[in-house]
Write the structure tokens for this entry.
Amino acid sequence: MDIALQTNDNLKAVFADYPDVVSVDDLCRMLNISAVTAYRLLKEKRIESLRIGHVYKIPKLYILRYLHLVS
């Protein structure tokens, strides 16, 4: 198996315990970033998200896309 594919599969497995749609707090834990950085990434649309009122909901797929693990 190609090392890049194996690495992608391993990283996807790291996130397997998270739900399909995560909160900003989950995003911070997943990427080991601060809340300030998370909100900046969301506001700049570098990570796609859904916003319901003042609450961000982030499909895990969008995080994997940000990390270039899926197309």
Summary: Residues 34 and 45 are 17 Å apart (CA to CA). The helical segments are 3-14, 24-31, 35-43, 60-66.
